[in-house]
Amino acid sequence: MRKLIILILLLAGVGGAYLYLQPTSDPVTDVYEFIQTRGVTEINVEIVDDVMHIQFTTPTIPELMDLQYDIAAEASSISGLPVKVESYYEDEPIFELSGTEGSLVFTDIRSTDYKILTELSVYDVLIQEVAVYETYAIVTLFYVGEETEFWADHQAMCLTIIQNAAWVDQIQINYTGETMSMPVVVNTDDVLAFYSGEITADEYVASITTIPIG
After folding, report:
1. CATH for 112-210?
2. What is the full DSSP assignment across 121-180?
């Protein structure tokens, strides 16, 4: 009997040691390693107040939403926690996904300046600087299209600026083309009046101030 008791105690000790030595799952490490498999290298993962916070820098903008959704869904699945996933591009915040797998909420977290920069980039321009202030916005750009097409693009670009910074009263686009450079200044009320049909094209053109500088 004594030998049996000793044997049971020894087996219990070995079993306890086995259980103790088994590695425990670390959701932070597991999520970090999963994100690495998606080609991302700049990553921060931490759990704060029972929410997994993830920040990562994307190497490219195309397909970012698909990548970010996969990361958020997998992180929620691995951790069993709500997640908050923020993506960055060249130090600029881009998107946020928060919630749990199957119930993620999208938020555009780009700054106003960066929204305008990215959305104006669809035109024939090279954007050099965007600055939005309390009452006015300034965009400095090089126009790479035909100079005769600039004015049509100018109207559309001003509307894009207003959509992202509705509080400004005036827009100044510092234009540089192949043959000249000039600030082009217009009041936002005139832009909106033109698009709503309240003023004619000629009246709109007359409302614009240009100062050729070369």
Report:
1. 3.30.70
2. TTSSEEEEEEEE-SSEEEEEEEE-S-GGGHHHHHHHHHHHHHHH-TT-SEEEEEEE-SS-
